[in-house]
Amino acid sequence: MPTTEGPGRGDDIGARTRQEPLPAPLAEHGGGASRGLDHVDTSTHDSGRFGRMFPSLPPFLPEPAALEALAASMFPGPALPSTPTAALEPGDNPDLPAGYTYLGQFVDHDVTFDPVSSLQRQNDPSGLRSFRTPRFDLDSLYGSGPTPSPHLYDQTDPVKLLIGRNTGTDQEPLDLPRNHQGRAVVADPRDDIHFILTHLHLAFIGFHNAVVDHLRAQARPPDDLFIEAQRVTRWHYQWVVVHDYLGRLVGADVLDDILGGDRRAHCPELRFYRWEGAPFIPVEFSAAAFRFGHSQVRARYVLNRAGRPVHILMPSLTPDPLEHLGGFRPLPRGFGIEWDLYFAIDGSTPQHSRRIDTKITGPFVQLPVVVDRRRRSLALLNLLRGRALGLPSGQAVAEAMGTSRPDAELGLSGETPLWYWLLREAEVLHEGRRLGPTAGRIVAEVLLGMLAADPASFVHASPTWIPSLPAEEPGRFTMTDLLRFAGAT
C-alpha cells in the first residue's frame, strides 16, 4: 500500500489478507461461470489458454475492503477537458500521443478474450479459455476468413473487408457495417466499445483494402491475392507493434536486452515467458502488466477540429448521445476522426496520453453500467480481478525477476497488488512516461514471445524482413505510415 495518508492509505495491505477463495461465482461479460479451482495451476498449458508466468509464487489475497480503499485512492479528482493544442495538461505524458493508448487496446483485443472469468472466486488460469488466438493475426479483423465469415467481406470484391457507411464526408463519416439495431458486424464486438476504437478498426479495414489495391497494381495473381494481402497486412501491423508501440512503451533498453541488441534479427531471448507445447497468455500479463492503459485514458477527447471535447464514456446512464464517445451505435454526424489529433502526422501536435501512474481518470471511477456500486469502479474491478485470479504481489514478482525496489523508494508499505505495484514502478522510476523494468519486461516478453511462437509471423517466418510499403523513413514503418497508406489521414 502507499505510505501517504489518505482514505485507506498508510495501512499495510499485506497484513489484511485471507487465504480462502471468494464465494458465489458471478460471470463477467454475460458468459457463464468459468472453471474455478482453489489452487494455483502449474500444469502444461495448451494453445489458446491462460496460464501463469510465475506459477511457484503464492497468491496475494488482501481483504476486499483493503482493495476498495486502495481503489478509492486512485481517483485524482475532477479531470480537465482535452484540447487539440500543444499545451500540456496536468498528468499528460509528453512522450506519447493519445493514439497509442488505443493501439494498445486494439492489440489487447487481437490477442486475448476472456468472457467467462469470475470476480468472486479464485480462478484456475488453465480453465480460462481465450476466445482469441494468442498471436498477432488480426482475427478480430478477419474472423475466420472470407468463406467461413462472409459477413465481414465485401461481396462485390470478396478479397476486401466490408465497410458500412462509406460516404466519408465530414457530416457522414465512414462507419463499420451494422445491423438494423446499430450493432457493428465485426469479429470482435469490443472493437466498437467507443468511437476511437471504432475508427481504429475502420483504419485497419482500410489498410487491408489498400494493400489489396497495391498488390493488384503489381499484377498479383488473383488466386492467392487474399492470402498475400493478409500476410502483408499482418506483417506490417506486427512490425508496428514491435518497433513503434513497444519501443515507446517499454523503452529501448528493455527491447534491446530481449532482442540481443540487434532488433533487426528479431530473435527474442525470453527469460520469464516460457511454455511447453504452445504459448499461453499469462495472467500476470493480461490481468496486471498489460492493464497499464487504463491509467493512460483521458476523461475527454477531441475527435476533429470542428468538434469539442467529449467524454470517452457515457457520463451518466441517461446521456446526451452527442456528449460521449461510447459505442455500440452508429457514428453520429460530425463524429469523424482526424488522426493527426491522435498521432504526430506531418508535424501535427496531437493530444497526449495520460502518464502511466496510480491515478485513474474520472469516467472510470463510476462506470456507466447497471451493476452494484462497488463494480462501477474500474480500479476496483482490476484489483478484484487480480485477487480472484490469485496473482502474486508486485514485490514477489519483482523479486523473482531481479527488478525489485525497496518499498520506501516506491512509497509503499507491505505487499501490494501486482497491477498497482507495476503502475507505481512506472510512476516513480520514469515519471509515468513509460513502463518500469518489471512491467516492461513482462509486456515485451509476452508480445515478442507470441510472435516468435507463431509460424506465420514475420518474427518466426522471416526474422530479417523489413517493411516493403511506403514509409516516411524507409524501413521504419510506423502507425503514422499505416494510417497514411490506408488513406485515413
Structural features, described:
This protein has 489 residues and is mainly alpha-helical. It has a single domain, classed as Haem peroxidase domain superfamily, animal type (Myeloperoxidase, subunit C, Orthogonal Bundle), CATH 1.10.640. The protein contains 14 helices and six strands. It has helices at 64-73, 99-111, 139-142, 195-217, 225-249, 252-258, 283-286, 378-388, 394-401, 407-410, 418-430, 437-453, 458-461, 479-485, and strands at residues 50-51, 92-97, 281-282, 300-301, 310-311, 352-354. Strands 1-3 form a two-stranded parallel ribbon. Strand 4 and strand 5 (310-311) form a beta hairpin. Helix 1 packs antiparallel against helix 8 (378-388) and helix 4 (195-217) crosses helix 5. The longest helix is centred in the middle third of the chain and has 25 residues, at 225-249. It is globular, with a radius of gyration of 22 Å. Mean pLDDT is 84; it is low at 4-40, 42-48 and 114-121.
